[in-house]
Design brief:
Helix content is 39%, strand content 12%. By secondary structure, the chain is of the alpha/beta class.
């Protein structure tokens, strides 16, 4: 709202009229320090191994590695990364009335066909000098990644964009499952699902196993792509993710899919070299 080239009013006077501090006008965000970025990467790696670690236990883990950190500092970094421990916490706060929490619909359900259930989640993606957030939408039965988006904020917009792309390219699922994050309970995201007549399912609070398929995706992606490369910029991350996700969808077989790739399972294609079930021949003396 401050116009520095406006001749009639100085910047000082404009700030006074707008009731803002002049130092706030000149402030330039500095981003996270190199130490904090290093700590965030270590936290991210440890969270894959021990997702039940909260701020207190994560701080202990880092102090044993020689870092002088405390619980408050690690708690802030965990919140910035969008990470939380998986244990059930007391329900001490009420959700926003416009952010309805939907019940978990997948318990006991046999998920055996494409487009029966889709799921989505957000993960922290470290770079050499910063970080981004990644949202992915996956078909539960085939493990195929249907769409994904990167963002430097945790707003709901990039999640809605990924959802719209998946719907445009692959139709719609019967059920869509997410966690209770504000991006997925937002009016824009829920409205898109309702307009497409999709049933909405949400994990129990703190129950990461309710969305276990996409949690496994994050583990594979980070160990096989993110941690092996020191990506410098968002464009490098985007190119690296595209290569890995294309490889994951079209070339990486899964034993749970009868050694098919996610794309082969999604489109119900036979795996290469498959000549039907093996026939056991009787032995003759």
């Amino acid at each position: 709202m401050v116009e520095p080239k406006y001749q009639q009013l100085s910047i000082v006077r404009q700030c006074q009229l707008l009731s803002i501090n002049r130092s706030g006008y000149y402030y330039q965000p500095t981003g996270e320090s190199a130490l904090n970025l290093e700590l965030m990467r270590l936290i991210d790696e440890q969270h894959l191994e021990t997702p039940w670690y909260g701020a207190r236990q994560m701080a202990r883990h880092l102090r044993r590695q020689g870092y002088g950190v405390n619980r408050t500092q690690i708690g802030r970094l965990l919140r910035l990364m969008g990470l939380s421990a998986i244990y059930q916490k007391p329900n001490t706060s009420k959700p926003h009335p416009q952010h309805k929490i939907y019940p978990y619909l997948l318990r006991g359900m046999k998920i055996s066909k494409p487009n029966q259930v889709w799921c989505a989640d957000i993960s922290y993606i470290p770079m050499r000098r910063g970080f981004l957030y990644l949202v992915a939408i996956m078909d539960w039965a085939s493990r195929k990644v249907l769409s994904w988006r990167l963002s430097n904020t945790m707003d709901a917009d990039f999640c809605v964009a990924a959802l719209n792309e998946a719907l445009a390219r692959y139709g719609k699922p019967e059920i869509f499952n997410t966690d209770q994050g504000s991006q997925f309970t937002s009016d824009a995201f829920i409205g898109t699902l309702k307009n497409a007549d999709i049933r909405i399912s949400m994990d129990g609070k703190g129950c990461w196993v309710d969305n276990v398929m996409i949690e496994r995706l994050w583990r594979s992606l980070k160990y096989e792509c993110i941690y092996l490369h020191a990506f410098e910029s968002g464009s490098e991350v985007r190119q690296g993710l595209k290569r890995w996700i294309d490889f994951y969808n079209t070339q990486r077989p899964h034993s749970s899919l009868d050694d098919k790739t996610p794309s082969e399972a999604y489109w119900n294609q036979p795996r290469p070299g498959y000549a039907g079930p093996l026939i056991k021949l009787a032995a003759y003396p």
